[in-house]
Amino acid sequence: MTHASPPPQPSPNPLPEPPKTSHGRLNLPEVLPIDGKQPLFWLYLGLKDIGHSPWLSLVHGLLIAAGGALITGLAHDRFWLLAGAISGFLVIAPVLATSLYAMSRAIERNEAVNLHLLFKTWTQWQTLHNKEPVSYWCLVRFGLLLALAGTGWVLTSSALITLLAPVAIYTPMDFIRHVVLSRDSYLFELWLMLGGLMAAPVFASSVVAMPLLLDRKLNTLQAVLTSWKVVLNHPIPMVVWAFLIMGLSMMGILSLFIGLIVIVPMLGHASWHAYRDLVDTSDVPERMPRQEAV
Length: 294
What we know:
Layout: E1 30-31, H1 38-52, H2 54-75, H3 79-91, H4 93-96, H5 98-109, H6 115-131, H7 133-164, H8 172-180, H9 187-206, H10 209-215, H11 220-233, H12 235-254, H13 260-278, E2 279-280
Antiparallel strand pairs: 1-2
Helix pairs in contact: 1-2, 1-13, 2-3, 2-13, 3-7, 5-6, 5-10, 5-13, 6-7, 7-9, 10-11, 11-12, 12-13
C-alpha cells in the first residue's frame, strides 16, 4: 500500500513577489500634481525643520563638511582624484541624509526628535534583518547601488582628466588654468557632459527613493521606478529641483565646506517634503510603527 507524500513545507522566510496589478505591472504609488514653484517651498520647509531641532540637524551638515575637508586634505595635490571624490560624495548624499528624513517624518507626526530617533534610524536595519529580511535588503541594496555609482564616477572622472589633460593636473588651480580656461581643448565641456550623463539617471533613480524606502514597505525596484515616474510626470519641476540641489551643493563646497553645515540639513529635510508632496502613499503600508505623539 502506497502513502501520499506530505505537501512541501513553505520556507521559513519566503521572499514575496513584488505586488502587481491585474495587468502584470509593478504596483507603483501614484504621483501627485505639484505647482512649478514647489521646489522653492521645499527649501523653505527644510529650513523650518532645521529650526525645530537645530543642533541635531546641523550636526549632519557638520559631519558632511568635515568629510569634505578630510577628502580635500588627503587629495589636495591630486585634483583628478579630488574632483571625482567630492562629486561622488554628493551622489551618495541621499543615503547619508537618511536620519534627516526620519527627523522630518517625526516632526510631521508630532513625535519626539532626539538622539534616540537618530540611533534607531541607523540601527533599525538589524531588527528588520531578523523580522523582515526583504525590507532589510531593500535599504542596504539601494545604499550599495548609490555607493557603486559614486565609485564609478570617481574612477571615470579620474581617468578622463589624467588621460586627456594637456599637462599633469595636481591642484585646483592647475585644473582651472589647464582645463577650465583652456582654449585649445574641450576637456572641461566633455567632463561636464559626462558628469551630467552619469548624474541624470542617478538623480532620477533616487529623487524620492530613499525617503520612500525608509517610510513605506516597498522594494528597491518599486522605489527606483517610482522616482523615475515622478521625474517623467514632472520634468520641469524636477530639473529645477536638480539644479537647486547642484547649485546649493557647489556653493557649500566653494565656501570651503562651511556652507554645507546648513545646506546639507536643509536639502535633506527638503527632500522629505518633496517626497511627501510628490508621492501618494495612502495605500502603501508603513515600514515602521508610529510612536506616541509628544
